[in-house]
Amino acid sequence: MNFLQRAIKNVTRKLSKSILLLLTFFVIGNFVIVGLGISQASENAKIMTRQKMRAVVSYEIDYDAINEYINSLTDQDAIDEFYNNGYPNIKLSDVKPLLEDERVLTANALTTTQLYATEGSDFVHLGNQVEEDLSSQEMCYVDPDGNQVCEPYNQPTYFLKANYFPNMIEFQEGSYNIVDGRFYTQDEINDNVMVVLVSQALADLNGWRVGDVIDFYSSDPSSIEPGGYMGDMGITTEDITMSLEIIGIYTHNQAITPSSENFDWTYPYENPDNMLLMPGTSYAAHSLAQAEKSWDYYASQFPDDPYYTDPANRPTAETLGYIGNVTILLNDPLDVDSFVADYSDDIPEFMMINANNEEFERLSKPLDTISLFANFIVWLVVINAVVIITLVTALTLKTREYEIGVLLSIGASKLKIIGQFFVELAIVAVIGFTLSIFSGSLVAGKVGEVVLDYQITESGVAEENDYMIGYPSTSIWDTDYTTDITLDDLVGEYSVSISPLIIAEIYVVGLGIVLVSTLIPSLMIMRFNPKKILMNQN
Amino acid sequence: MAEILKLENINYSYIDGGFERQILKDLSYTFEDHKFYTILGPSGSGKTTLLSIISGLDTPKSGKIYYAGEDIEKMGLGKYRRNKISIVFQQYNLINYLTALENVLVAMSETDNKLPKNHKEVAYALLEKFGIVKTKADRMVNQLSGGEQQRVAIARSLASNVDLIFADEPTGNLDTATEKEIVGVFKELAHEYGKTVIVVTHSDSVSELSDQRLLLSDGILKDIS
C-alpha cells in the first residue's frame, strides 16, 4: 500500500470530494480547450495563409522617411543640396550583405527599358489594335504654330530586364524556365559581358540559337538621324547598338492571348515573348557612351550650370545602373518578418526593407484579436484554477491532518505524503481533462465560429475593400512579386480543431495547475509536527 | 536480556504562562528486550511526552536516546520510526478511507525492514492472529468496533517487523473485557514474539499485568515493580 495506491484509494473512496474536483477540472479543461483551440486556429490560419504568400521582401527607398526629413529642414539651401547631391539611391553594395543570409534564395535588382529591333529582326506579334495603330512608323504632333508635324518614329519592340544578380526570382520560382543554354554568371556580370537570354517564341520566330550574336538598338535609331534629338548630341548608330550573344533560351508562363485583360492595348514590347534578359552591369556599360555624349552636349549648352561644371556629376557605368528597388526571395514565407526585423536597423538611412504584408496584417487583425482574447481566457482560467484548487487542497489538508500524523508516526516521509496528494489531484485532473477533450472539441468549433464572425463584424475589416499589395502584376515595368490576399483566404484557413498538440498542452496545463496547487499545501505539510497532530487528536 | 533502549539524562521543558515547566529531569533508564513495561503516573506527569520522545515523535531539550546502542538522532527520527519502532495510540490512529487490511499494508510498505514478499497474506494472517477474520479485514476501519480497531492498530504495529512497540493509553477507550484482551496481546507480543512493549497508562489493572512497572514522577522514572 504505497503512496500511489493510497492516492488511488483516496480518490475512489472519497467520491464526493473527487467528483467535485473532477467537475472543477472538467470545467477548467473545457475553457482551456476552447481557448487553446481558438488561439491555435487563429495562428494556423495566419501561418497557412502566410505560407501561400510569396516569400518576398523588398529593399527600397523609404520615401516617407525622406519626406519627413525634408519637411524637417528649414533652410532652403539644405533642401536644394539634399535634392542635388544627397538624394538617396539604392546601392548594390548595401544590398549584397543581405543576400548572404541563408534564408535568401535569390534577388531581382532590375534595370528595365525598351529596346528596338535592327534590320532583319522581328518581334512576336500579337496582332492587336495597338500594332495596327502604330503601323504608320510616324509620330505626329501639333507644333506651337498649330501645324501638324510628323516625324519618323520607330516603335520599341523589345523589353529588357537587366538584373545585377546571376539568377532571377522568376527562374527560381519556375515561372520562367531555361530550355536551352544557361543564365548569365557572376563573372559575366562583373566583366560587363554582352550576353542575353531570349524567349523561345522570339528565338523560334527569328531562327536564333544559343551562340548567335544579335544586334539590338538601345534607343530609337530615328532619333540619331540629323534633326533627331540624339543626333545633335553626336550619338552614333554604334553608340546605340548592342551586340548580344544569346546564351540562353527560356519559356515563360505569362503568355498574352486575345482573352487577356487589355489585350487590345498591349504594346509589342509589353508582350512577354519579346522580353530580353541581360546583366545589369553590361547594359549600364553599354549606356555609358550615350550618357557621356548627352552630358557633354548639355554641359556645352549650359556652361554656367554648376551641375555640369562639376566633373563629379559626369556619368559613370556605376551611376547609370539605376535600380528602383531590390526584390529578395526567401526560402520560407514564415521567415519574412524575422528577416525584416533582423536587417531593418542595419541598412542605410532612407532605405527600408519592406515585408509587403500590410494587407495581410490588416486582414489578420480579427484573428490577432481572437488569439489574444483566447490566450487571455486561458491564462485567466488557469490562474483561477490554481487559486481554487490550492484553496480546496489546503482546506482538505486541514481535514486530513490526522491521516498525515498517522503516516508520519509510522515513518512515512513528508515527500511521499506530498506525492500522495499530488497524485490524488493528478488522477482527478487527468480524468477531468480527458472528459473535457470530448466536450471541448464540440464546443470549441462552435464558439470559434461565433467569435470569428463577431470579431470580423466588429473590426469592420470585411467592409473595407480588399486591395492588391504593391503594383498590379500586369505592369511590365514594375513587376509585383507580392501576393494579393483576401479576407476569405484567411477565414478559409480558420478551422478550430483539437489537435494532438492541444491535447498535449491540456495535460501539461493540467499537471501545471496540479503542481502549483500542491505547492502551498506542501509547505504546510512540511511544517507539520506528528506529535502535535496526534496529541491534539488524542 | 539485552539492552534495547537507553535513555541518558533526558530533559524536557516547555513554557507555560511565562514560566518554564520542567517535565523530564535528567531522566535516565534502560529498557531490556522481550519485556512488557508499563509506565504509570498521574495526569500531567509527562507520560505522553516521554512516549513522544522515546518514539521519535519529539526531541528532548537535552540528553540522548540510544536504540541498541545507536543514537536515534544520528540514525534519523524518520528512519527510527519507520524501521525500529511502532506506536499504538489510544485513538487507534487508523486511516479511515482504508480497510483494516490496507492499514496494515501501509506500515509494511513504509518500512525498510525485510518482510516476506506476500504482504497481503502476511497481513491477513496477522489480523487473524488478533481476532480480525478475513471478512472483517476487508471492511473499512470505521465499520469495526473500538476493540477491533485497536487490534488492527496492534497488527499494524507488528507488520513492519520492529522489535520495540510503544502504546499510549491503548485501552483508554475500551471496556474492561476488551482491555484485558488487549493487555494479553501485549504480553503475548513480549513473551512469544520477542518484542519489547512499553505501554503508557494510568490504569493499575493494565500495569499489574506487565513485567516491569515504572512510575513517572517528578520528571524521573522509578521502578515500582
Explain briefly what this protein structure is:
Chain A has 538 residues and is of the alpha+beta class. Chain A has helices at 3-13, 15-52, 63-72, 76-86, 92-99, 129-133, 169-173, 186-190, 200-206, 237-240, 280-301, 306-309, 317-320, 336-343, 358-399, 401-409, 414-459, 487-493, 500-526, 530-537, and strands at residues 56-61, 104-117, 138-142, 148-152, 158-163, 176-181, 195-199, 213-217, 241-252, 275-279, 325-330, 351-354.
Which structural traits does this protein have?
heterodimer; A: 538 residues; alpha+beta; 3 domains; 6-stranded mixed barrel; two-stranded antiparallel sheet; 20 helices; B: 225 residues; alpha/beta; Rossmann fold; 6-stranded mixed sheet; 4-stranded antiparallel sheet
Secondary structure layout:
The complex is a heterodimer of chains A (about 550) and B (about 220).
Chain A: H1 3-13, H2 15-52, E1 56-61, H3 63-72, H4 76-86, H5 92-99, E2 104-117, H6 129-133, E3 138-142, E4 148-152, E5 158-163, H7 169-173, E6 176-181, H8 186-190, E7 195-199, H9 200-206, E8 213-217, H10 237-240, E9 241-252, E10 275-279, H11 280-301, H12 306-309, H13 317-320, E11 325-330, H14 336-343, E12 351-354, H15 358-399, H16 401-409, H17 414-459, H18 487-493, H19 500-526, H20 530-537
Parallel strand pairs in A: 5-10, 7-9
Antiparallel strand pairs in A: 1-11, 1-12, 2-5, 2-8, 2-11, 3-4, 6-9, 7-10, 8-9
Helix pairs in contact in A: 1-17, 2-15, 2-17, 2-18, 2-19, 15-17, 15-19, 16-20, 17-19
Chain B: E1 3-16, E2 19-32, E3 36-40, H1 47-54, E4 62-67, E5 70-71, H2 72-75, H3 77-83, E6 85-88, H4 100-110, H5 119-129, H6 134-137, H7 146-159, E7 164-168, H8 176-191, E8 196-200, H9 204-208, E9 212-217, E10 220-223
Parallel strand pairs in B: 3-8, 3-9, 6-7, 7-8
Antiparallel strand pairs in B: 1-2, 1-4, 4-5, 9-10
